[in-house]
Amino acid sequence: MMHPDITPEIAARMPDLRGRLLANQELAPMTWLRVGGPAQVLFTPADTEDLAYFLKNLPREIPLTVIGLASNMIIRDGGIPGVVIRFAPRAFGQITVEDGYRLRAGAFAADRKVAMAAAEAGIGGLEFLYGIPGSIGGALRMNAGTRSNTNPEIEGETRERFVSATAVTRAGEIVTLTPEDMKFVYRSSGVAVDTIFTEAVFQGFARAPEEVHAINARVQEHRERDQETKVRTAGSTFKNPPGHSSWRLIREAGGQDIRIGQAEMSKKHANFLIAHDGATAADIEGLGEEIRRLVKAKSGIELEWEVKRVGVPA
Ligand SMILES: Cc1cc2nc3c(=O)[nH]c(=O)nc-3n(C[C@H](O)[C@H](O)[C@H](O)COP(=O)(O)OP(=O)(O)OC[C@H]3O[C@@H](n4cnc5c(N)ncnc54)[C@H](O)[C@@H]3O)c2cc1C
Predict the structure, then answer these.
(1) Same-domain check for residues 100 and 167
(2) Residue 70 and residue 52 in contact, taking contact as beta carbons nearer than 8 Å
(3) What pLDDT sits at residue 142?
(4) Is 148 marked active-site?
């Protein structure tokens, strides 16, 4: 599905824009699930100031969506109307070590690379990021974290290490956010959805590099043993309801036996969904809704999507 090209109208309002504006850009190849239609406009800002200039001059009625590495996202088959912002690694992927066992990372730095940089620098506490296949921007929005019933050393959550973030508001103001501003809760942040993170600072502690590398390796082992790592998925599909595990509720409701089109739930980890070749976003979202229906019927519990669903149906 093609959207009307509004890039000339946007460009005309922003003579000093340095980033790249593209009409009708395919997004599926940029996502973990490899599904979904195009962005009406894809904007790649040159740097934080360019992003601020863009947002200040973007008419308020044009919808705005930001994507990171799209490892927690279903983009619907009709694509995303309005502007999609996606960073380039050169401008937003830098990682620097600071005094006092701190790391500063751009919002498009991959979580895994941040964990590797921490290991090199002898900084402990960020190992949980090693197994999360997203970016720092996504980690801030999702309060990404790792849980383990068997090994506490691989556990952690973004909020525990967070010091501050730089972000740009929808009005184009560059702001610094404190832990209180972030309003972190389980797998979410309360910051306005149209505020875009550009970098963050994390606090770790002294730990010998070889020890951090060894914990990173154990994070990887845990993933390979308990989760799907080699198929198209989006991680945990649903949040764990208080006092329950989504995977157990799904398994007990028979959710692992159903398939919709080319999408099915994993046999290895019942809360992971898998997109096979030819899957559409409608298959995947339909599967998720069917799982919610089954779980509600069996246990009375309403599962809440952890995966973000964006855009419009075909
Ligand atoms: C195999 C696999 C395993 C996973 N395991 C885990 C796990 O153990 N723990 C866990 O927490 N998650 C896990 N996930 C989910 C996912 O990796 C995380 O939620 C990750 O933090 C998402 O980052 P992302 O860059 O891919 O964000 P996206 O999927 O691109 O976006 C997610 C949300 O973040 C927002 N966002 C992205 N960048 C920015 C930004 N710069 N500013 C503001 N908002 C932004 C988006 O708008 C969207 O709302 C897993 C996913 C997969 C595929």
Answers:
(1) yes
(2) no
(3) 98
(4) no
Residue 151's pLDDT is: 86
Q: For residues 95 and 208, state if they share a domain.
A: yes
297: in domain: yes
CA 137 to ligand 1 center in whole angstroms: 8
What are the C-alpha distances in Å from 115 to residues 120, 132, 135?
9, 10, 11
Q: H helices of the chain, where?
A: 7-13, 48-57, 89-92, 111-121, 136-142, 158-161, 179-182, 209-226, 246-252, 281-299
- How does pLDDT run across 209-254, given as a tens digit for each residue? 999 999 999 999 998 888 888 899 999 999 999 999 999 999 999 9
Which residue, among 233, 163, 197, 183, has the nearest Cα to 67 in the 3D structure? 197
Do 12 and 84 fall within a single domain?
Answer: yes
Q: Is the beta carbon of 311 within 6 A of some atom in ligand 1?
A: no
pLDDT at 1 over 80: no
Q: What is the CATH number of the domain that holds 46?
A: 3.30.43.10
* Residue nearest (by alpha carbon) to ligand 1 atom 8: 146
Count how many domains the chain has: 3
Query: At 92, is the pLDDT very low, low, confident or very high (cuts 50, 70, 90)?
Result: very high
In a domain, 274, yes or no: yes
Of the listed 71, 189, 236, 246, which one is catalytic? Answer: 236
User: Whole-model pTM above 0.70?
Assistant: yes
Residues 73 and 100 reside in one and the same domain: no
Same domain for 176 and 126, yes or no, is yes
Q: What are phi and psi of 196, to 5 degrees?
A: -110, 125
For this structure, is 161 an active site residue? no
Q: By residue range, what is the domain housing residue 304?
A: 246-310
Residue 147 — very low, low, confident or very high, per pLDDT cuts 50/70/90?
A: confident
Q: Whose CA is nearest to atom 1 of ligand 1?
A: 235
Q: How far away, in angstroms, is 308 Cα from ligand 1 center?
A: 9
